[in-house]
Amino acid sequence: SARCLRAFAATGRAGGAWPKAPGVTQLMAQRRWNAGQESLNNVMPDKKHFRESATPHPLRPHQHLDPDEGPIVELMHNHVWSQEEIDLRLGNLYQHKPQSWSDSLARGIMYSLYRTFNFMTGFKPVNTPVKAVEWRLIVLESFAGVPGFMVAMFRHFRSLRTLERDHGWIHTLLEEAENERMHLLVCMKMFKAGPITRFLVVAAQLFMTPMLAMVYIARPKAVHRFVGYLEETACMTYANIIHQVETPGTPLHEAWAELPAPALAKAYWKLSDEALWVDTLKCMFADESNHRDVNHTFATMESDDPNPFVEKHKANAINAWRLENDGMSTNIGCPKTLGTKDEELPELKRRLAPDIVNA
Fold first, then answer.
1. What is the three-class DSSP state of 327?
2. What residues contact 70, with CB distance under 8 A and at least 6 apart?
3. CATH topology of domain 68-331
4. Which of left, alpha, beta for 75 (phi over 0: left; psi -120 to 50: alpha)?
5. pLDDT at 68 over 80
6. Phi, psi of 260 (to 5 degrees)
7. Which of 14, 197, 235, 346 is most solvent-facing, going by the fewest CB within 10 Å?
8. Band of residue 343 on the pLDDT scale cut at 50, 70, 90
9. Is the dihedral of CA 28, 30, 35, 36 positive or negative?
């Protein structure tokens, strides 16, 4: 191999003589060696074209992110929202009507916790203090990432225990958990968590996680319904915050109206360079509305039913790949860019990922 030849050459030069066969002079051996080196270099050209390639290496730091933050590992492909999708969801705050006694119980518990949480954080429908919103978002997102991961863990163990497939639920649940965690990390780029906030984060995990686990063992559908109602309240919170930010004269408008979106948010949601913090809040609202719909759907299904959101995950991956490969962003906060249109998706799937069309 090339490595062995180079090591052999170094050994020969270190000994003061070029390697040669019997009857070959030193000059002849050196000429033969030089010819071999030239031939070897032709076989193994310089790797400059790899360094100058336009294709980004998966471990290379993202252009939006600060290199001091450390290496960024590729995340699951979240849905890249368009302005039209967000406007549609903001105009329709869906609320599920209970269909059974367990639905009514889950809704009653959730909305009782919601009102208690409003009182504890000082959250009001109008003129909410900025600090109250910061505190609320950190605590909310720190807990919202728990149910998806916990349920995915139970389903993972169930699949191993029964020696049967999961029918695609685990991926959706893990994507939800990671998405909520990214919400928290984005908030931490904007806010600071004090000792009381950190205590509430830990207390919420220690109290709610075992409670949800016990309920899931006994009645899985009830947990999904509870999370669906949780996401409904999250949608209400984000919609109210967005309204206050866009309403002149409110404390949130004065503090956040012109605040730029953090680099992490631009990278995660493929936002434009001109995107504002309120655009990030709109993406977070849209994510919560998607989690609401997913969990309300799971609450109506049996545990061995196939996941109806698998094709949506594939579409999200294709869309995110296209935007990143073309150096584009969404049209949120920047009207000159576009996302993938629904009518383009079948042809795009055939062109970019023909192996998953019939999967």
1. coil
2. none
3. Ferritin (1.20.1260)
4. beta
5. no
6. -70, 155
7. 14
8. very low
9. positive
Domain ranges of the chain: 2-42, 68-331
Token pair of 238, please?
């984000």
Give the pair of three-digit tokens for residue 180: 């909520």
pTM of the model: 0.70
Lowest mean pLDDT among 82-96, 198-212, 286-300, 322-336: 322-336
Cα separations in angstroms, 277 against 140, 210, 270, 338, 344: 18, 35, 14, 20, 30
Q: Find, among 220, 231, 55, 60, the residue nearest to 152 by Cα.
A: 220
- Asked whether the predicted pLDDT for residue 288 surpasses 60, the reply is yes
- Helix residue spans in the chain (DSSP H): 2-14, 26-43, 48-51, 83-90, 101-121, 130-162, 169-190, 195-218, 220-245, 251-256, 263-269, 277-298, 310-325, 345-352
Tokens 């252009």 belong to which residue? Answer: 63
DSSP, res 260 = B
- CA–CA dist 217, 214 (Å, integer): 5
Give the separation between CA 70 and CA 84, rounded to whole angstroms: 35
